[in-house]
RNA sequence: GGCCUGUUGGUGAAGUGGUUAACACACAAGGUUCUCAACCUUGCAUUCAUGGGUUCAAACCCCAUACAGGCUACCA
């Protein structure tokens, strides 16, 4: 029996040839240097930070070279796939502005000329290439059962030999074709293995765009390329798909690094041009003093939805990720404050070859700075969209008092050094609730008095202020100078300095007196600019807050 | 066990043979302000995992060791 005859028996329904597919999926018409990259996840659940990081880099590289970025779903392991897995990925990523030029757009549909973009729909293509390999005597059926493989492994362990299906252990490599066919006809389960031409003693050299020059042993394992269920393994699908989809750069996690010899071998056997590789180190997490790779199973808080629930702006997360990817971004951004991430040129060489700890502090700091640069109306939009999902009461208020809310967000904002006290939207309510009567009046109040905490003194100072000093049309300077006069009137120092120099002469200082008004009106000892708050509240509401204090405390 | 990768302050890191190891976060002290945040100033690795070697000279080159991570599946 010839190889050709065996191939026909193995794949009776395959009538296309590799050449047909080469024609169907021609070289892309893109400009020199353009990168074609892909994000190729398995549909196993939510997207987590590590995956977002990788897809962000993949997309950025394609974008900045006017290339193509596509989404390919790797669902060759049916056991791990979950329902709506594809939509979940698309949704999670689109929340972060990660969109695709080509690829899956729903569970079953795709856009682009190089599809299908889901591996379970590419069976025929894989079979065509494997059929050719069988014809050429480069692949063969293997009938090893799990137990037999286990036995081989044990024997190798005992003999201190390398583990794996290779050389003399590759029993079915030399199995007779006639016998193989008769077993297949009998219905025996089998897989197709590659007849590896590699020699483990020899080294291959290749250059990884991130890790640099590497030397790895050739692959001599007869790896499985087609599983018992008729679907290919990752390695084989990677070679066929990335070739036919004309991927120029395979950017992926570095858990694949040691498989590169297999992949290069596959590309060469199939007659494909080897793509460029860039292996990204994983984001790490520190736990019990040890660091480890972020894990989807162990770290559900690393789901990107977690950040959404906290109301950390998408832009802030992207700024953080690009900072982790290329640490020179920060300095560049400082110089180009109005530029966008798109204007920065990400460099493979500057991506760290060791894994970085995910740093929440740094993320929040970036977020805080980002938010401080926004206009009040932009902060309002973010807060509203957050509240609409996570705080309906606040959402209602923001909608009802839109202009007022924007004015609140504008306190100490449009100035050379804008206020920086907000790093995520989940903090908004805590920071502004007292500006809304609905919230102020509905809850029991906890006044955070300073050194002046006697009810008598508080009422004396505040009523005197409203009767004799308060004027809604005062400028900030006038307002403050009146506070100083008020302080003096009640025996408090006009200036903090004066008080510090001669504390025995005063009951306190102007700061203590302002504190009375601040706490009376807001209950809080720490607030943004009191002048702005008073202007926003207006005389009537301030008086009613004073009355409430008088009656209830 | 085998193969591979990584290791610079509390954190992210710059730096690849030549003066005091950038910068940012965090932290601390002082200043400033009506409070807070912010802001300003200053401090924060005599040393680049450890031990050897090469060199006039090493965080940078070489070797060994330790530790961490990955791969070694009909999982990706």
Summarize the structure.
With 553 residues, this protein is of the alpha/beta class. It has helices at 3-10, 18-24, 49-64, 85-95, 123-135, 146-158, 177-186, 234-244, 260-270, 304-310, 314-325, 329-335, 360-372, 376-390, 392-400, 402-409, 428-432, 437-442, 455-468, 476-489, 496-501, 510-522, 530-552, and strands at residues 36-39, 68-71, 102-104, 110-111, 139-142, 191-194, 203-208, 212-217, 224-226, 249-253, 276-280, 284-287, 290-293.
Could you walk me through the main structural features you see in this protein, from its secondary elements to its overall organization?
The protein has 23 helices and 13 strands. Strands 1-2-3-4 form a four-stranded mixed sheet, covered by helices on one side. The protein has a three-stranded antiparallel sheet with strand order 5-6-9. Strand 12 and strand 13 (290-293) form a beta hairpin. The mean pLDDT is 91. The chain has helices at 3-10, 18-24, 49-64, 85-95, 123-135, 146-158, 177-186, 234-244, 260-270, 304-310, 314-325, 329-335, 360-372, 376-390, 392-400, 402-409, 428-432, 437-442, 455-468, 476-489, 496-501, 510-522, 530-552; strands spanning 36-39, 68-71, 102-104, 110-111, 139-142, 191-194, 203-208, 212-217, 224-226, 249-253, 276-280, 284-287, 290-293. By secondary structure, it is an alpha/beta fold. The structure holds one RNA strand of 76 nucleotides.
């Amino acid at each position: 029996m010839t190889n050709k005859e065996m191939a026909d028996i193995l794949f009776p329904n395959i009538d296309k040839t590799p050449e047909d597919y080469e024609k169907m999926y021609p070289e892309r018409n893109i400009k020199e240097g353009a990168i074609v990259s892909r994000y190729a996840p398995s549909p196993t659940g939510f997207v987590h930070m590590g995956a977002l990081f990788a897809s962000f880099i993949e997309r950025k590289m394609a974008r900045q070279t006017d290339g193509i970025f596509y989404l390919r779903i790797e669902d060759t392991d049916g056991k791990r796939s979950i329902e709506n897995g594809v939509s979940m990925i698309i949704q999670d990523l689109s929340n972060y502005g990660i969109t695709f030029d080509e690829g899956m757009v729903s569970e079953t549909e795709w856009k682009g000329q190089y599809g299908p973009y889901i591996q379970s729909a590419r069976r025929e293509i894989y079979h065509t290439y494997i059929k050719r390999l069988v014809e050429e005597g480069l692949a063969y059926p293997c009938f090893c059962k799990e137990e037999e493989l286990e036995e081989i492994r044990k024997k190798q362990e005992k003999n201190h030999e390398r583990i794996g299906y290779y050389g003399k252990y590759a029993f079915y490599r030399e199995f007779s074709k006639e016998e193989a066919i008769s077993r297949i006809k009998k219905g025996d389960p089998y897989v197709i293995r590659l007849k590896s031409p590699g020699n483990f003693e020899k080294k291959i050299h290749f250059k990884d765009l991130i890790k640099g020059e590497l030397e790895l042993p050739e692959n001599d394992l007869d790896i499985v390329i087609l599983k018992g269920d008729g679907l290919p393994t990752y390695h084989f699908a990677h070679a066929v798909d990335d070739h036919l989809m004309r991927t120029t750069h395979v950017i992926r996690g570095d858990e694949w690094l040691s498989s590169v010899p297999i992949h290069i071998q596959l590309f060469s056997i199939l007659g494909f041009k080897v793509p460029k590789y860039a292996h990204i180190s994983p984001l790490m997490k520190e736990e019990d003093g040890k660091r480890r790779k972020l894990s989807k199973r162990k770290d559900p808080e690393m789901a990107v939805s977690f950040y959404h629930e906290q109301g950390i702006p998408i832009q802030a997360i992207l700024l953080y990720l690009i900072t982790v990817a290329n640490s020179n971004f920060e300095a560049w951004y400082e110089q180009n404050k109005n530029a966008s991430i798109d204007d920065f040129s990400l460099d493979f060489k500057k991506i760290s070859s060791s894994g970085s700890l995910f740093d929440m502090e740094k993320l929040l700091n970036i977020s805080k700075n980002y938010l401080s640069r926004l206009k009040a109306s932009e902060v309002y939009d973010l807060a509203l969209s957050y509240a609409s999902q996570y705080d309906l009461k606040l959402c209602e208020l923001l909608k009802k008092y839109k202009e007022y809310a924007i004015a609140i967000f504008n306190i100490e904002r449009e100035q050379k050094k804008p206020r920086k006290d907000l790093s995520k939207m989940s903090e908004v309510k805590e920071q502004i609730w007292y500006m809304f009567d609905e919230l102020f009046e509905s809850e029991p109040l906890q006044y955070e008095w300073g050194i002046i905490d006697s009810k008598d003194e508080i009422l004396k100072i505040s009523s005197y202020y409203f009767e004799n000093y308060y004027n809604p049309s005062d400028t900030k300077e006038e307002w403050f100078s009146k506070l100083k006069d008020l302080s003096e009137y009640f025996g408090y120092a006009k200036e903090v300095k004066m008080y510090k120099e001669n504390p025995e002469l005063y009951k306190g200082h102007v700061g203590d007196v302002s504190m009375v008004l601040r706490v009376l009106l807001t209950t809080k000892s720490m607030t943004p600019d009191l002048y702005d708050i008073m202007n926003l509240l207006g005389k009537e509401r301030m008086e009613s807050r004073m009355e409430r204090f008088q009656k209830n405390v």
